[in-house]
Amino acid sequence: MDKKLEGIDRKLEIQVTEIKSEIRLVKTDLEAKIDLTRNELEAKIDLSHSSLEVKIAELSSKMDGYSKRLDQQEFISRGAIVALVVGVASGFIKYLFFSN
Questions:
Q1: Is residue 21 predicted with pLDDT exceeding 90?
Q2: Which of 64, 84, 82 is nearest to 74 (CA)?
Q3: Is pLDDT at 78 greater than 70 in this prediction?
Q4: φ and ψ at residue 77, rounded to 5 degrees
Q5: CA dihedral 90, 95, 98, 100 (to 10 degrees)
Q6: CA angle 30-36-39, nearest 5°?
Q7: For all residues of the chain together, what is the average pLDDT?
């Protein structure tokens, strides 16, 4: 009976050892796949980050162009208002002082 129990114990130990080695293989395989996936994601994130930086730079240059155009329009508008005020003032002065 003891021999049968020892035989069963050995078989169980062998099976446990085999299961542990299979678990180690699966663990190693999963770790490799996780590392590969992590590297792929990091590469995609870096690519997206650089793409966003390029788009931000493009938008920044467009905004600079728009601000320059607005500055020019403000200058022209101020000039037109000043000319209008000077014209009205000179007409009013002419009417008051040079009327017959």
A1: yes
A2: 82
A3: yes
A4: -65, -45
A5: 160
A6: 140
A7: 88
